[in-house]
Specification:
heterodimer; A: 267 residues; Uridine Diphospho-n-acetylenolpyruvylglucosamine Reductase, domain 2; Uridine Diphospho-n-acetylenolpyruvylglucosamine Reductase, domain 3; Enolase-like, domain 1; 3 domains; 5-stranded antiparallel beta sheet; 33% helix; B: 157 residues; alpha+beta; Ubiquitin-like (UB roll); DNA polymerase, domain 1; 2 domains; 5-stranded mixed beta sheet; 16% strand
Chain lengths: 267, 157
């Protein structure tokens, strides 16, 4: 199908973008790899698309004082190739190849993925596992939200109308810290049936599941368990995965346990 | 054309300047405004990959990019890359190996295979499959396509 009509603006400065986004019916357009399909299928019909891809301050990856800052417009392909990510965010580096396909990774952005908050997407779970900070700009200025507070429900985030996600900040992984990324999908590049982004530091684990709820979820009971068997049992307290077309809730919980087993010894 | 925006796009080396409706995606623009019908539309929501074109050197889904977003960009399609001879070896191998039947997916398959050749010329079969995973072919079962790409990458006859 074809997209419905809409107006288009490409601001050159953040202030101008925020002004445009404050208008009724305005919607930000970044890589467009989820927004344009939804327009083509007429699932959304904004009056104004504000193309933010010209905003230089939303680009680039930087490492400063142990924090990796990734601009909202950084594409999956750029993350895939970035040495700073390979070196300091191995969890993210392991996640990227699971995101769709090369042609989509060339356009899709990390900011777009986080702001959309698809419950089966990779980056939101990584942000949760790594306790990332989401940076948001709005008419009232800049604010920061922890990933745990940012993802609120099915495609629902803490972003208010008119606000723009501008960057995400991750603490660089230290030498004695561990991470693991595992995903089960029916076909390569598909959204996850179930996935796990896991991080361990100072004996404490953060197990972020995706495709297992209405948003990425931390399995807090399983993370506190003393051994693998106890952790697998505890997952039932953490996850009540909704069934999809192909998998029952029980199957998804089973698969979540399989992933935990695979990740356990690497954490 | 109430929302039309003026854009300048270099398509296969030729600069074109047009007023474009924002809702028109890049492949509709190429096909309907410029008559370049080698880029195909299958699903129009990013699943099938038949619309693959190259924008500023990177392959993209042409149905998931608005034509106005290509303002100032260099767009290359199967027509340009075929005429320049850049795809000749791949085209020959696809022909020799029967790596197509109906041919609907072939232009995009060639562009994606060429992208792999440029980025990872030593790719093995698994990596070839991985790179082509976003391009659907409903005829061949992929075996012959992977054979053809492998032949070009590794000179296997």
């Amino acid at each position: 199908m074809k997209a419905p009509p809409f107006a288009y603006a490409k601001p050159r400065a953040l202030a101008e973008a925020l002004e445009l986004l404050a208008r009724p019916g305005a919607q930000a357009l970044a890589g467009g790899q989820s927004l344009i399909p939804s327009l083509n299928m007429r699932l959304s019909s904004p009056e104004l698309l504000v193309d933010i891809t010209g905003l230089a301050e939303l680009k680039g990856i930087g490492l400063e004082q142990g924090v990796v800052r990734i601009g909202a417009l950084v594409t999956h392909a750029e993350i895939e190739r970035a040495d700073v990510v390979k070196q300091h965010l191995p969890l993210l580096a392991a996640a990227v190849p699971h995101i769709a396909h090369p042609a989509i990774r060339n356009r899709g952005t990390i900011g777009g993925s986080l702001a959309l908050a698809d419950p089966a997407a990779e980056y939101p779970a990584c942000a949760l596992a790594l306790d990332a900070t989401i940076v948001i700009e709005g008419a009232k200025g800049k604010r920061e939200v922890k990933a745990e507070k940012f993802f609120k429900g099915l495609f629902e985030t803490d972003l208010k109308p008119g606000e723009l996600l501008t960057a995400v900040e991750f603490k660089a992984q230290m030498k004695d810290e561990r991470s693991a990324f595992l995903e089960l999908a029916r076909r390569r590049g598909d959204y996850a049936t179930v996935g796990l982004a896991a991080f361990a530091a100072n004996g404490a684990k953060r197990l972020a599941y995706f495709g297992a709820g209405d948003r990425p979820l931390l399995a807090t009971h399983a993370a506190k368990a003393g051994d693998l068997e106890a952790a697998k049992a505890a997952l039932a307290q953490d996850l009540r995965p909704p069934a999809d077309l192909y998998h029952s809730s029980a199957t998804k919980l089973h698969l979540a346990r399989v992933l935990l087993e695979r990740a356990w010894n690497t954490l | 054309m109430e929302h039309a925006v003026e854009a300048t796009i270099t398509v296969n080396g030729t600069e074109v300047r047009r007023r474009i409706e924002p809702r028109q995606h890049l492949v509709d623009f190429l096909r309907e405004e410029l008559g370049l019908t080698g880029s195909h539309l299958g699903c129009e929501h990013g699943v099938c990959g038949a619309c693959t074109v190259r924008v500023d050197g990177a392959i993209v889904r042409g149905c998931l990019m608005l034509a106005v977003q290509a303002d100032g960009c260099k767009v290359e399609t199967i027509e340009g890359l075929s005429d320049s001879g850049e795809l000749a070896k791949l085209q020959q191998a696809f022909h020799a190996r029967n790596a197509l039947q109906c041919g609907f997916c072939t232009p995009a398959m060639l562009l994606t295979a060429r992208d792999l050749q440029l980025r990872n010329p030593k790719a093995g079969r698994e990596q070839i499959r991985e790179h082509l995973s976003g391009n659907y072919c409903r005829c061949t079962g992929y075996q012959a396509i992977v054979d053809a790409v492998e032949e070009v990458l590794h000179g296997k006859g």
